[in-house]
Write a structure and sequence with these properties.
mainly beta, 11 strands, elongated, eleven-stranded antiparallel β-sheet
Length: 160
């Protein structure tokens, strides 16, 4: 009888932690303090588009280059709503940027380079107390090669 009671208690002790672990709800995913589905809207404050054609001392730079194909064309004063996707990605009009890291003060986003439009590191700054977004710095880079001469376009959008 003692062995039966001992085995019963051992079985209950072994099963109890499993049932408690299963009963606890899984906390929602967070990506650098942002939950999937979070939205925030900012206004474009500055737009910078620069292109450089060629290499070395003979390179030609255009400080007012047009926005290249494949890069979202936003303008100063435009309001843009950002959404945090299911995997933490930053989504906006014409772009989706993968979540890379989150830390105090900012989240980092970047996509792996691909042919055509390539995203360079992008950041969303956060208030240190509330963790709410305070501004966004969005960067794009494109590279085109024509007749063995590269043209690199860098586009930067600052949102506040």
């Amino acid at each position: 009888m003692k062995k039966l009671l001992l085995r019963t208690f051992a079985l209950i002790a072994a099963v109890l932690p499993l049932s408690v672990a299963q009963a606890a709800p899984k906390p929602p995913a967070k990506f650098g303090d942002f939950s999937p589905g979070k939205t925030f809207t900012f206004t474009v404050k500055t737009v910078t588009s620069v292109s450089t054609t060629g290499l070395g001392p003979g390179a030609v730079t255009n400080d007012n280059a047009p926005i290249p194909a494949g890069v979202p064309a936003l303008h100063v004063g435009q309001q843009v709503t950002f959404v945090i996707g299911k995997k933490g990605e930053l989504i906006g009009p014409g772009f989706k940027i993968a979540f890379v890291s989150g830390g105090p003060g900012a989240n980092g986003y970047a996509n792996k380079p691909k042919k055509g439009a390539t995203l360079t590191p992008t950041s969303v700054a956060k208030d240190l107390t509330t963790n709410e977004p305070t501004w966004v710095n969005l960067n794009f880079a494109t590279v085109k090669i024509a007749k063995r001469v590269p043209t690199v376009n860098l586009v930067n959008y600052l949102f506040e």
